[in-house]
Design brief:
Number of strands: 13
Radius of gyration: 23 Å
Bound molecules: CU-O-CU linkage
CATH topology of the largest domain: di-copper center containing domain from catechol oxidase
Shape: globular
C-alpha cells in the first residue's frame, strides 16, 4: 500500500481494497495486486488540480489509420484478448504512473461536482460530449500503446440500444482474473439482467435523433442536454451500485474504475457522432450541428498521453473525430421526419391537488394545431427545458402523465451520484426529452388536462418539484427512407 492510500480520507478506499483483495484471494497472480492509489479526491479529502498545460494537440498531428470502433459482441476472440490484455497492463502499471487505472479514473473524478468548480464542470453542461471524447481518446491511446498496437487498437462500445444486458466479457468470469470485471455493480445487471425497457432503448435513441437542436440534445453552457439524462445517466445508475453505496458506475467519482464505463461512453460518443451525421443541406443550417459559440469551442483540457506526457486538447479539436482522432463508427440509418413542427406551451404549476403537479397550458390556436397534426400517427416529444435539479438530488426518475385513472409513462432520466462535499452541492439544470406520443390527447385536453408526475424510482432519489424554463411539443412524422 502506498503512502497515497494511508490518509485519513482514504479510509473508505482502504475498505474497498480490502474487500476486493479478499474476494480475489484464492487467485494468485499480479491481478490481485492491482495498485489502488489515487489523487485522494474522495471526500472529505482534498481535490488536487487536474493536469494542466502541456503540449497542445494540433489537428492533423495524428496520422494513424482511421479505424472503426466496434460493438463488443462483434469483437473477434483475438480482439477480445487484446482488450483484456490492455486492461491487464493498465491495472498492472506502477502506482505512481499517471496512466494507471485509478489515476485515470481520478482524472474523471476531478471534473465532477465534488471537485470541479464552475469553470471545470464537464457534466450538466455542453462540455459533456467533447470532454468525454477527449478523455476516451487518450485512454484509448494508452491502452493501445500498452498492447503495442497504438495504430489499430480502438475502444469497443456497448450498444445498449440493441444489446440490453452487460456484455458477458465484462461480467464473466466474475473474478479479478477478468480485467474487464468490476466488483461494484448492481447485482442483477452483473448476473446478466436486462436494462429497464426505457433506458437507452432504440426508441429512446430515435427520439434523440429526431431532435434537431444541440441545446436539447447535448446541452448549453448552463444545462445538461437530454442525452445526459437518458441514456447516459440512467445506464450509469442501472449498472452501478445503488444508493446508499453509489459505486462504481453509480457515482461519477468512481465510475471510470469500471471498464464498462469506457464501453458505455464510447456508445454515447457514437450517438453524438450519429446525431451530427444527420445534418444535411435540406434542413435548417443549425440542425444537427454543434454549437459555434467560442465558449463551447475553446474549452480546453489537459490529459496524460500514452507516454505519460501532459497534453492539452480543445473541444474544437475533437468535433471531427474521424480526421483528427482517427476512429469512426459504422454508418447507420435514420428515417427523417417529414414534419418537424415545434409547438410552444407553458408548464403551469400546479393542480390544486396535494401533489402540486404541473400541467401544460396552450394557446387555443396551438392546441388546435396539435390536435390537427397528431390526427394520424405522429411522434410527439415533450421538451421540458432546463428543469431545475435541486442540490443533492441523485437517482433515476420517471415522469408520468396522469389524468383520471390514466397513467402514461413519458420517460426516465438519471442524475448520477456525485458523492462529495455536500456543501459543494449546487442546483443543476437538465433539459428533458419525453415521449408524449400516446399522451397527447390527455395533455392537450381543455378540461382538467393531464398533470405531470415526477417520481424517484431508485432508493434515495429524493422527490423534487418539477419546474422548467419553458416547454414545447415537437411533432414529427416519419418519411421515406432517405439514407
Ligand atoms: Cu463523466 Cu458518464 O460520466
Amino acid at each position: 500500500m502506498t503512502k497515497n492510500n494511508v490518509r485519513a480520507d482514504g479510509r473508505r478506499r482502504f475498505l474497498r481494497d480490502t474487500i476486493t483483495v479478499a474476494g480475489g484471494s484464492a487467485i494468485l497472480g499480479s491481478s490481485m495486486l492491482w495498485p489502488r492509489p489515487g489523487f485522494a479526491q474522495d471526500p472529505p479529502g482534498g481535490c488536487p488540480n487536474p493536469p494542466s498545460g502541456g503540449t497542445p494537440f494540433q489537428p492533423g498531428q495524428d496520422q494513424r489509420p482511421i479505424v472503426v470502433r466496434k460493438f463488443i459482441s462483434s469483437l473477434t476472440s483475438a480482439e477480445l484478448t487484446t482488450l483484456q490484455n490492455a486492461f491487464s497492463a493498465l491495472r498492472g502499471l506502477g502506482s505512481n504512473d499517471p496512466r494507471t487505472w485509478v489515476l485515470q479514473a481520478d482524472i474523471h473524478a476531478l471534473y465532477c461536482q465534488q471537485c470541479a468548480n464552475d469553470t471545470t464542470q464537464i457534466h450538466f453542461m455542453w462540455n459533456f460530449f467533447p470532454w468525454h471524447r477527449c478523455y476516451l481518446y487518450y485512454y484509448e491511446r494508452i491502452l493501445g500503446s500498452l498492447v503495442g498496437d497504438l495504430d489499430h487498437f480502438r475502444l469497443p462500445y456497448w450498444d445498449w440500444e440493441s444489446f440490453r444486458s452487460l456484455p458477458s466479457p465484462y461480467r464473466t468470469p466474475a473474478a479479478t482474473t477478468n480485467t474487464l470485471w468490476d466488483t461494484n455493480r448492481n447485482g442483477g445487471m452483473q448476473a446478466g439482467g436486462k436494462l429497464p425497457v426505457n433506458d437507452g432503448s432504440q426508441s429512446r435513441l430515435n427520439l434523440l435523433y429526431g431532435t434537431q437542436d444541440f441545446a436539447t440534445f447535448g446541452g448549453t453552457l448552463g444545462a445538461a442536454g437530454s442525452c445526459e439524462g437518458n441514456p447516459h445517466g440512467v445506464i450509469h445508475n442501472d449498472v452501478g451500485q445503488p444508493y446508499p453505496i453509489l459505486q462504481d458506475m453509480g457515482d461519477l467519482g468512481f465510475a471510470a474504475r469500471d471498464p464498462i464505463f469506457f464501453a458505455h461512453h464510447a456508445n454515447i460518443d457514437k450517438v453524438w457522432s450519429h446525431w451530427n451525421g444527420l445534418a444535411k443541406s435540406t434542413l435548417p443550417p443549425t440542425a444537427y450541428k454543434n454549437p459555434t459559440d467560442p465558449a463551447f469551442l475553446n474549452a480546453r483540457w489537459s490529459f496524460y498521453d500514452e507516454n505519460s506526457k501532459v497534453v492539452s486538447i480543445s473541444a474544437a479539436d475533437v468535433l471531427d473525430h474521424e480526421s483528427n482522432l482517427r476512429y469512426t463508427y459504422r454508418a447507420f440509418i435514420f428515417r427523417f421526419p417529414q414534419i418537424y413542427e415545434i409547438i410552444p406551451c407553458r408548464l403551469i404549476c400546479c393542480d390544486p391537488g396535494p401533489l402540486h403537479e404541473p400541467f401544460l397550458q396552450f394557446e387555443e390556436a396551438e392546441r388546435t394545431k396539435v390536435a390537427e397534426l397528431t390526427r394520424e400517427h405522429a411522434t410527439v416529444a415533450l421538451v421540458l427545458k432546463e428543469v431545475e435539479i435541486p442540490p443533492g438530488v441523485t437517482g433515476t426518475f420517471e415522469i408520468h402523465a396522469i389524468r383520471g385513472e390514466q397513467k402514461l409513462l413519458l420517460g426516465r432520466f438519471g442524475i448520477v451520484g456525485e458523492k462529495g462535499n455536500r456543501e459543494k452541492d449546487k442546483a443543476r439544470r437538465m433539459t428533458l426529452l419525453l415521449d408524449a406520443s400516446s399522451a397527447v390527447p390527455s395533455l392537450i385536453a381543455r378540461k382538467q388536462p393531464a398533470t405531470l408526475r415526477l417520481r424517484g424510482v431508485t432508493r434515495g432519489a429524493k422527490q423534487f418539484k418539477l419546474v422548467a424554463e419553458s416547454a414545447e411539443l415537437r411533432i414529427t412524422r416519419p418519411a421515406q427512407k432517405e439514407r
